[in-house]
Amino acid sequence: MNQAKSNHQEIPTADALPGQWLGMLGGGQLGRMFCHAAQQMGYKVAVLDPDTDSPAGSVADWHLCADYLDTEALKQLAQKCKAVSIEFENVPAETLSRLAHDTLVRPHAAAVEIIQDRIREKAFFIDAGVEVVPYCPIRSSAALEQCDSALFPAILKAARFGYDGKGQARVANKQEALLAFREFGEVDCVLEAEVALASEASVILVRSHEGDITYYPAVENRHKNGILAISISDAFAKYPNLEHQAQKAAAAIANKLDYVGVLCVEFFILEDGRLVANEMAPRPHNSGHYTLDACEESQFSQQVRALAGLPLGASYNKQAAVMLNLLGETWLVKSDNDQVSTPAWEKILAIPGVHLHLYGKSEVRKGRKMGHVNIVGDDADQVYERASAVAKILHLDL
Ligand code: ADP
Ligand code: MG
Predict the structure, then answer these.
(1) For residue 228, how far is its CA from the centre of ligand 2 (angstroms)?
(2) Strand pairing of 83-86 and 320-327?
(3) pTM over 0.85
(4) Boundary residue ending a domain (157, 176, 193)
(5) What is the chain's mean pLDDT, rounded?
(6) How far apart are the CA of 163 and the centre of ligand 2, in A?
(7) CA 354 → CA 130, 173, 252, 287, distances in Å?
(8) Which among 170, 278, 369 is the best mutation to test ligand 1's pocket, defined by most ligand atoms within 8 Å of the CB?
(9) Is the CB of 164 under 6 A from ligand 1?
(10) Domain for residue 65, yes or no?
């Protein structure tokens, strides 16, 4: 009897099985790569995005072209899909809570709502026992006038809707901060001390609805003009004691949020060797794109598994990897007059271990993420050599 009972408990169940529909809110490149992973496993994907021409909408099995708060579209999505997730954090939390009446929504609205607002996000990190850089919430110019002058030089960041360094201003003193605050339209902000960074790293984890967690090894991230340029797997080779600390911090955050899905926590490594959390993303992350070619299971197939309630896959690196982001500049490199030319793909693809990923965006713009290149190899030296050759051909800095 006991034997039968325990066997019964071990039978895996799932909330959505291959052949059934999964829903994705957002039509960007992260949604596109989710579609590819889900479709490979036999799922059908419905994407809700208001744009008629979007990277994910164009590969989805069904593109609902509607506003995120369109009642009819949400009804149709919930009816069709066993479970729904997001590919960018600014989907209205109300959309998630409305959908949750009729279908599974992972991650849940309350977790996403915290991540949407830097003021709440930072307070949450602190509550979870995770250190952040010194900061002050700014909801009025009076708050700025009263803030601690020791925060300067500082960065004023709009609390909501920032990405790729947008909605941020570097400010040397209160006067400059006040000007920037006015320029932002006096929206809620955080004022953060600008700290000297030894390095930046991210931890991507996947948490199941049962609370199981699997981690990818931390990734080192290098930014240019506030936009991620390069990610290098195995970030903490130089700081081995930080890997466990970063994973523990990310897990504390995910558990406290009762998070289900892929979560990325961005960290700063300060010059004194301390690790502090910067921000988090409730979805796969640009710094995890290397997992598509270097890992047992990519961050997107893990997103599918967590969403569908399947057992999580293994997330170790099978190979060393570097990811180079491809921004619009790569297409505009030859001219100053914004003429578009096709990069020399045939040359980079002649290098071993090079994998090209393009997002199907028709319009090239400076700073727009158009794709990425993953370069894999046996070890860090080999990958770096290959990545240098790719960077040279594409006129990228490495
Ligand atoms: P975004 O949402 O645009 O990614 P982040 O807060 O991550 O915003 O800032 C983008 C980048 O700017 C960071 O990855 C880091 O390189 C730099 N940065 C942000 N905050 C600070 C800070 N307090 N001190 C020094 N550099 C910072
Ligand atoms: Mg960031």
Answers:
(1) 8
(2) unpaired
(3) yes
(4) 193
(5) 95
(6) 7
(7) 37, 46, 36, 17
(8) 278
(9) yes
(10) yes
Q: Are residues 216 and 341 in the same domain?
A: yes
**pLDDT by residue (tens digit) across 266-302?**
999 999 999 999 999 999 999 999 999 999 999 999 9
Domain presence at residue 302? yes
Number of structural domains (the chain) is 3
Pairing of strands 21-25, 227-233: unpaired
CA–CA dist 132, 249 (Å, integer): 11
- Largest interatomic CA distance in the chain: 77
- Report residue 198 as tokens: 């030894």
Cα–Cα nearest to 292, from 337, 329, 323: 323
Q: What's the CA-to-centroid distance between 21 and ligand 2, angstroms?
A: 31
Q: Residue 127: what pLDDT?
A: 98
Residue 126 lies in a domain: no
The answer, yes or no, to whether any atom of ligand 1 lies below 6 A from the CB of 223, is yes
Looking at ligand 1, which residue's alpha carbon is closest to its atom 24? Answer: 194
Specify the ligand 1 atom closest to the Cα of 154.
Answer: 23
Residue nearest atom 15 in ligand 1 by C-alpha distance: 226
